[in-house]
Amino acid sequence: MTQTDDTADSDSDVPYAGLFPDVVIDAVEQAGIACDGRVLALNSYENRVYQVGVEDRRPVVVKFYRPGRWSDAAIEEEHRFAHELVQAEVPVVAPLKIDGRSLMRHAGFRLAIFLAQGGRWPELGQPEERRTIGRFLGRIHMVGASRAFAVRPSMDIDRLGRASRDWLLDSGWIPAHLEVAYESVTDALLDAIADSYDRAGDFLELRIHGDCHRGNILWTDDGPHFVDLDDCVTGPAIQDLWMLLAGDDDEMRAQFSEILEGYRTFANLDLRQLWLVEGLRTLRIMHYAAWIARRWSDPAFPKAFPWFEETRYWEEHVLTLREQAALLQEPPLVL
Question: Cα 324 to the chain's mean position, in Å?
């Protein structure tokens, strides 16, 4: 069975103990790449990611996968999807193949190596930028619809919502004075999300990026490059579009119209999927809280999220969920 971040704990309370700079360099050189000794830790909590300098060449980025999260088969399926996209000339940063394999092992860790890709997060402030992003997302989904994942999970209510809610309640993370309120609002939310799925009808599910926010897009003079398929799943196409929207309803309506204009160059989108947006946003909020809680024994998490243990965070979390409950009762964005 595929292990995912929703059900599996790390093999150790300190999953990356022993992952020192010399281990990182040795892992890259084991792949036949001569390093120049420079190692820069990049911003990543779930996995550990480093940029490593290479002699007389472009640097590489090496990702060490969190122990116990994904099965080998699930990681290899992610890599195959990335290489399919590259073969279709979609600008996705795919792992290098060394002796025919992209998933490697060193010192007890599983890892993949990528060529470093420069760029900046896109502002998407201009209509043509949004159309460009839409065209590339349409191409990603055109490839994604060509076959199915065999082992990677789906974006479903039970996995992201109900399992997250139950785990937080059972593990004692919800402060006692908020337990009744949290349980009540999440019960209502799970029902409302199910209703939104019903309103969306029998929508197509396909292989998607799964975490397509602006931080996972690098923009250069040549256009966008998509990175980090670590969360690729089977799900609705709208999941890869809604996180790119920002602002009030009028602004998001204009942004979505322009993204959709580009998207429809290569793929179709059933607009009934707009009913899913607030439900998907709610599942992301619920899952995010449970993700931090599940990873709390990893020393990187208390350092990165010191506010997570404060009562105020959980009070604001419940308030956010109540706001989502109200939004789920409203009609979706209308173009």
Answer: 21
